[in-house]
Design goal:
Distance between the termini of chain A: 40 Å
Number of helices of chain C: 20
Order of helices and strands of chain A: HHHHHHHHHH
Order of helices and strands of chain C: HHHEEHHHHHHHHHHHHHHHHH
Helix content of chain C: over 70%
Chains: A mainly alpha, B mainly alpha, C mainly alpha
Radius of gyration of chain A: 20 Å
Largest sheet of chain A: none
Oligomer: heterotrimer
Radius of gyration of chain C: 22 Å
Strand order of the largest sheet of chain C: 1-2
């Protein structure tokens, strides 16, 4: 009995800060984009706009939930639930320190990959059940884009996994003790970052949900709490992908070797710092680059990233087997 | 873990019945996804963690997405599927019963009996051998490691054949669907990127 | 794995060469400039044909005669060499037929040739397979390529229907195959044919329950193979598929998969399950009877050429199943001989059908054959000799092969099969002779006869070679007897 209570507390300790993080991520995005565009972001609600997410959340809760009359109600309501749930359950395998992980799966990376494959369904169910042509089209495009970039994501992961020798997250971080994987695999690091951008439907790959052009794509018919769930799910996915990227390439909770005077900081701090670095990169890219047109986006995924990542798999595996460097 | 096995199996069987009984074809595909998820759960209970995740990635993440795309774009009207299932009951039920009996005859029979008790009551007096799995006492391998050690060495031929099948599928899909219209203007991005700025405008005197 | 480079690749040299050749062709096809596409298909046909010739030479000159490769998943023996060479020759003939067909039907896709070569590779690997898993993988490999080829003409509903029907039935029968194979694996713990054969030694009249469960698995397996080889009562898909697919692909369907699948049938049932002879003999007995009867009676009411050829091929499969049901080496030799002669006859028949193209298109109905004597007497005499051979009239090649099979059946005391075989030959004679009547003795009407387009040299060569084969095999059959006997001896 106390075992279950312990697990429940661990889950709460994981989820509650995550939700807070998502909420403040929204604020951070608006402030940072504002700074890049030489204006201040929201600064009305609290000092420096700190209470803005609370105001947003309150507004979304109080709004009227509009259900389209011809929508398929069960699937319509299940789609945001699914998206949000998948964004939360993938956090169970992320290690925040040595042994600080909810569930140390031996196939942790594959579990994350499977959960992100399932994330496609939230989008496609939302688009179809809205019974609206624009939503459906946006959903199909978004799904096709996510599936295409999952391919290159998987192949890049394979290259890093050959270095690490295990799918277990803790072991992957342990194997980066000498040198972070971003140093030998720097091109793959860049490609992984871009694939994460495409996978989470963030700019410059956000044509399927472009706010100016396609009126928010697959979640156009959603309002109030359902939209809030989608929103939370998307940002949760974003933070997850950044954390995933920092674990695979920047050494997870390992401290920076240069700043050795800061070694007393808890391991979670380092993971958070690296993830924050990537999140800043996400927002920076959003503010800087124009959107890819859909066919250019698909061309990039299939004709550029797939051959490159496949070639890297050949190169890395050949190198490791030939020199007998396999872990 | 019997409770979990019973729950997954019951959900799986009822979902698979709903696949063929649902009116809306999109519902059928969604129930099929539920079947895959339940089977993946059963595989985890059997200790095959790698296969469970691969089921989710390949079946649910790729194959069922393909089904869903096709079914959603086909726009099948639900009224076309109104037909009574009862008129198939005599012949269909008979054939189903025959299949079921055949499977039941074949189940739980071992050609090389490892469990002497299953042969009959007269064998109970013999001493049943107990096997100690020495390999497990030394070192345990993860599922994925075990597969990797065998599939790339002893059974590499199967790996090759699977890759050829994927090659044929790729060529076939392109052959059946690509419309290579020479009249449509396309952008050649690699050419555009290779352009040298200093040579794009030249003076014609 | 430890013998990978010492012996495994040595044994697989023909297949490896074919694979490398078709990869080079694939690369060539993709990198060629757009705009000269009709040249592309003829280039690929010539180079692909050369590839096949070299593979054939590599196969014949291979120093390895009897070998088990790749950790008990593949085998090379006399039968596999014989069937592989037949498959390569038949694909070469199909390439010869396609030289004129592809430009006439405006098929510009060079992947046609690549898929045919891949299907040939898979058929060669299927014949060598020694394990249920490698068998299943090779069958799926072949089927997938052929599903696509059947649906090649995208704007023709018949072709799409053919591809769809072939796919659904093929996937269904593969499901049966997997179910049977997994039942056998669950009951015995091994998927290797040789191990199964050793395990079942002396089973015969033992406990019905353990034997019965194996027979259930065997039933599923045999049903799956009979589906794929289009034997009755599982033949429903073949007339529709043969009619809808492009004619050259129909020719490939009638010959090559049947060659490989009979090889597979022989290996599974003669090597793996020979001790269950009395169980599967009944299955093949019944199916052979049904195939011969359905093949001859079903063809009586047909009005389209390709459907008629499909039903006649069902009948031929029935005759071949007689040889399979005997359980003797003579039966095996009969099957190999019949496969050889069947290949020659079918190449000839399809060459004639492809040669009858008028300016409007290719012939669809049997009535398009009328008055062939006036349009082209040489084609008429070729077709009539082929039809006589298919009916089994001496002294042509078809008679020789059927004669041999009936003798093998009588030796194995399958009297009713032999008698019914003769009777159904007589019935099939009826519709073959009605075709000949159409060609020679039909009343020429006042509307002018549509002239047929002149045929190209490759088709002419094929027609000539197969015609002389049919005429003169009976005079000097010993090389074929020796070849088929050598192939059958690998099971002694």
């Amino acid at each position: 009995m106390s075992y279950f209570l312990g697990v429940l507390l661990k889950i709460l300790g994981l989820v509650v800060p995550l939700l807070l993080g998502i909420a403040f991520m929204v604020l951070a995005e608006r402030k940072v984009m504002g700074s890049i565009q030489r204006r201040k972001g929201p600064n009305v609600v609290g000092v420096f706009g700190i209470l803005q997410p609370i105001a947003d959340g309150l507004k979304l809760m109080v709004k009227e939930t509009v259900l389209p009359s011809n929508a398929n109600l069960m699937i319509f309501l299940a789609a945001p639930v699914l998206t949000f749930m998948l964004a939360l359950i993938s956090w169970s395998v992320i290690p925040f320190g040595d042994g600080l992980v909810l569930c140390d799966l031996n196939i942790g990376v594959l579990y994350l990959f499977a959960v992100s494959s399932l994330g496609v369904y939230g989008v496609i169910m939302a688009g179809w059940s809205s019974n609206s042509k624009y939503a459906f089209l946006g959903a199909l495009r978004s799904t096709a884009q996510m599936v295409s970039y999952e391919v290159s994501l998987g192949l890049i992961l394979i290259s890093t996994l050959i270095f690490a020798g295990s799918l277990n997250f803790t072991e992957i971080v342990e194997s980066q003790k000498e040198v972070w994987f971003a140093v030998p695999l720097f091109p793959l690091f860049i490609m992984f970052f871009i694939s994460c951008l495409a996978e989470t439907n963030r700019a410059p790959f956000d044509l399927p949900e472009a706010e100016a052009e396609l009126v928010a794509g697959y979640n156009v018919e959603y309002s109030s709490m359902a939209f809030a769930l989608f929103f939370l799910g998307e940002y949760g996915n974003m933070i997850l992908m950044c954390t995933f990227c920092s674990i695979m390439f920047l050494g997870g909770w390992l401290p920076l070797p240069i700043l050795s005077s800061f070694d007393f900081m808890p391991p979670g701090f380092w993971l958070g710092l690296k993830a924050a670095f990537f999140l800043f990169g996400f927002i920076w890219v959003r503010a800087s680059f124009p959107r890819y047109r859909y066919d250019q986006l698909m061309r990039l995924g299939w004709k550029v990233f797939l051959p490159l990542s496949l070639a890297w798999v050949f190169f890395v595996s050949g190198l490791m087997i030939g020199n007998d460097w396999l872990p | 873990m019997n409770l979990f096995l019973a729950a997954f199996a019951a959900l799986g069987i009822s979902s698979s019945i709903m696949v063929i009984r649902a009116n809306n074809p999109v519902y059928s595909v969604l129930y099929l996804i539920l079947v895959f998820v339940n089977v993946s759960g059963i595989l985890i209970l059997q200790g095959l963690d790698f296969f469970a995740m691969i089921f989710l990635v390949v079946y649910v993440g790729a194959i069922a997405v393909l089904f869903l795309f096709v079914v959603m774009m086909l726009n099948i009207k639900v009224e076309e599927k109104q037909e009574s299932m009862l008129r198939y009951l005599p012949v269909g039920g008979g054939i189903g019963l025959i299949f079921f009996l055949e499977v039941v005859i074949g189940l739980d029979k071992e050609f090389v009996p490892l469990n002497l008790l299953s042969l009959g009551p007269s064998y109970e007096s013999e001493i049943l051998p107990e096997y100690l799995h020495w390999g497990e006492t030394l070192a345990q391998k993860t599922g994925i490691e075990a597969i990797g050690q065998v599939i790339y060495t002893y059974y590499f031929y199967y790996f090759f054949m699977a890759s050829f099948i994927l090659l044929v599928a790729m060529i076939g899909a392109i052959l059946l669907t690509l419309h290579n219209d020479p009249k449509v203007k396309r952008q050649e991005v690699f050419e555009q990127n290779a352009r040298e700025f200093s040579r794009t405008i030249q003076k014609a005197s | 794995m430890f013998y990978l480079f010492e012996s495994d690749f040595l044994g697989l040299i023909p297949e490896t060469f074919l694979l490398l050749g078709l990869s080079a062709l694939l690369g060539y096809g993709v990198w060629y400039e757009k705009g000269r596409e009709s040249d592309m298909t003829s280039h690929q046909l010539w180079i692909g044909g050369l590839c096949l010739v070299f593979t054939f030479i590599l196969l014949c000159e291979s120093p390895l005669m009897n070998m088990i490769l790749c950790y008990n998943t593949l085998i090379i023996d006399g039968m596999s060499a014989f069937l592989k060479s037949l498959i390569l020759i038949s694909t070469l003939c199909i390439f010869g037929l396609s030289f004129a067909y592809l430009p006439q039907e405006r098929i510009k896709a060079f992947e046609f040739i690549i898929l045919l070569l891949l299907a040939t590779l898979s058929l060669m690997l299927m014949v060598s397979s020694y394990d249920f898993i490698s068998l299943y993988l090779a069958i799926e490999f072949q089927s997938l390529g052929l599903y696509v080829l059947a649906a090649l003409k995208r704007d023709n509903e018949y072709s799409t229907e053919a591809g769809l029907k072939y796919f659904v039935l093929g996937a269904f029968s593969s499901g049966f195959l997997l179910f049977g194979a997994s039942l056998i694996y669950g009951l015995t713990g091994t998927t290797n044919f040789e191990d199964l054969g050793l395990l079942f030694t002396g089973v015969g009249p033992t406990d019905l329950f353990t034997q019965g469960s194996i027979v259930v698995g065997l039933l599923f397996l045999s049903v799956a193979f009979l589906f794929k080889v289009s034997a009755a009562p599982f033949h429903m898909w073949s007339p529709d598929v043969y009619e809808g697919a492009p004619t050259v692909i129909t020719a490939f369907f009638s010959i090559a998969p049947k060659l490989a699948l009979f090889g597979v049938l022989i290996r599974v049932f003669y090597l793996g399950f020979f001790d269950f002879l009395f169980s599967w003999q009944q299955i093949f007995f019944f199916c052979s009877l049904a195939s011969m009867v359905f093949g001859s009676f079903g063809a009586l009411g047909q009005v389209k050429i390709k459907r008629l050829l499909a039903f006649s091929s069902i009948g031929h499969v029935g005759y071949m199943l007689i040889g399979l049901a005997t359980g003797t080496l003579q039966g095996l030799q009969g099957i190999f001989l019949y496969l050889l002669v069947y290949m020659i006859m079918t190449i000839n028949a399809f060459s004639v059908v492809l040669s009858l193209r008028t300016r409007e298109g290719e012939p669809k109905f049997l009535l398009d054959l009328k008055n062939l004597n006036l349009k082209s007497p040489i084609l008429a005499i070729t077709l009539s000799i082929t039809l006589f051979s298919m009916a089994g009239i001496p002294p042509l090649a078809g008679f020789l092969s059927k004669f041999y099979l009936f003798f093998a059946a009588l030796d194995a005391s399958l009297y009713s099969l032999a008698i019914l075989g003769v009777l159904s030959s007589v019935i099939s004679c009826f519709y073959y002779i009605s075709l000949i009547k159409l060609m020679y003795f039909h009343k020429a009407d006042e509307v002018e006869l549509k002239p047929i387009l002149p045929i190209d040299s490759q088709k002419g060569l094929l027609l000539g070679l197969s015609f002389f084969g049919i005429l003169f095999i009976f005079l000097y059959p010993s090389p074929f007897f020796l070849l088929s006997h050598a192939a059958a001896l690998s099971f002694s």
